[in-house]
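Lay summary

Proteins are chains of building blocks that fold into shapes. Our project writes down both the chain and a compact code for its shape. Here are two examples, one after the other.
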Amino acid sequence: MDRLIAAVGPCRLEIDAGGTTFAALTRSIVYQQLHGRAAATIHGRICVAAGGRAGRAPSAAAIARLSDEVLRGAGLSQSKLLALRDLAARALDGRLPSMAQLQRMDDEAIIASLVAVRGIGRWSAQMLMMFRLGRPDILPIDDFGVRKGFGVMKRARAMPTRDQLARHGERWAPWRTVASWYLWRACELPAPPARSR
């Protein structure tokens, strides 16, 4: 890790502590498995359809009022539409914790509360914890970029397993979020020379 830090430079991890849990998870659902531009377009259409403007997060009530046809017309798949409906219902009936409530919870309690939402998995919960809540000790072992970066750092011939990353990552506690940021950056570095035999 020392060589990687030297190659990349100071950590520039940015935390966006603004917004609501609903807004953050709405964005997460819309952006899942899509290229950034396509996801931004769909998210913008949903924001506008909900009575706002592109980039401004809609409320749960505004989303709940939209018809399925409008949401599909904005570009949502059926599975994302159902996930967004579940998210809005949970926000409206109080089952979705606020950002302030999440701040008071431990990491595993946050994950448990968020993965109860349809379409939100452990990875999405961890991204919220890292980039919205600023949790310092998150290592998303299911993230392809983090695993690939770990392989680059270790000059591994094969993609490291989740277990290998988790075991090795224990040494980075309590700063595994920062380690994750560096592992993502490792994927952007020029390839190191091949190992000699």
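And here is the second example, written the same way.
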Amino acid sequence: MEWSVLLKNLQNKNVFVFNAIKSFKLEKKGENIIQVLFPSDSAKTEFDKISGEFFNHFKRKVHNHSIEIEYIRDFENLKIEVLTKRKIYEKFTEKNPLLKDLDDLMKFDLT
């Protein structure tokens, strides 16, 4: 909940930091451990600028000052798929098989 509020505030106040950290994931791994999954070191650098303020606020909100933060690089989060016209077409045909019939009839140029 607090993470969503932070992202919403950053979207208005600091778009650069928002874009850097919007793909971060926070997971509770124990009573006192929060795992922060981040996609790249540059994104973590931007997060470090605001993390102290965020986690201090969070610890006060939940009345637990013994929370520890673990940072883990999440390589799966970093993968950005390049969508070609062919891949976009294939995704749409999964949703609507009639597009394949239309392609057979019209011979779309999907190169």
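What can we say about the second shape? The chain has a mean pLDDT of 86.
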